[in-house]
User: What shape does this take?
Amino acid sequence: MADTPSLPFYESSAMLAVGGPTLRPGGLELTKRALSLCALPADARVADIGCGVGATVDHLRRHHRLRAVGLDRSAGMLGRARQRNPGLPLLKGDAACLPFEDGCLSAVLCECILTLVADIDAAWREIHRVLKPGGILVLTDIYARAPHQATGLTALPEASCLRGARSSDEIVGRMQRSGFTLLAWEDHSEALKRLAAELVLACGSLQSLWGTTDDPASATACPTAVRQARLGYFLSVARKEGIP
Ligand SMILES: C[S@@+](CC[C@H](N)C(=O)[O-])C[C@H]1O[C@@H](n2cnc3c(N)ncnc32)[C@H](O)[C@@H]1O
Assistant: This one.
């Protein structure tokens, strides 16, 4: 059955087929790399915000003995996650209004979700609120490596994962203004290229990734905008300021 046109890319059959249980560049290898930079103690309470089908939550619980919970705004994603793993602790909710008490989490992971969040200020406030002082924030996401040429990204559809790509300066600046200290920033753009290549081989084009329709104007403008912005992928680890 064909996907409905309004379906976000990460819920499309193309992405589910290519990405497997992780719906983003880098997969669980990138999660493992992030965890190696954090040294979280076993039993720490952790939330994966925008958990998709729950692969990271499962990994954190099974292989790191963390008390991990997943949260996602999509009922469809949570349904798939529960089908894959019925015992996983999962919550329906929005990054901009987290259902956790103040200072109760040792770490928050946001793997390829912040570019999708409409109220980004609220999401940063909420992540800061629910973390303990000294708590860890792991972010992986798409970013614009040529931000002065990224204005054309606004031509992409609202639901496109690429539309919200920001520069590293803007992301780190926002992190610092929100009360975090940057511990690590790594470029993993090769992972984005690999995912793009796999999508081309599986689907014949990147149209599903751009989120474009068959409209000729959008079919020309979107690839140009994406090329000019020189999109890449990053991993960052930050610590909430304050004494644990
Ligand atoms: C690209 S997928 C990544 C999923 C997962 N983190 C992974 O690595 O496979 C983005 C996910 O973020 C969720 N999402 C987007 N905006 C959200 C929001 N404001 N609050 C909670 N979840 C959100 C989507 O429903 C989707 O499951």
Remarks:
- Residues 10, 22-24, 49-52, 55-56, 72-74, 77, 94-96, 111-113, 116-117, 161 surround S-adenosylmethionine (CB under 6 Å).
- The radius of gyration is 17 Å.
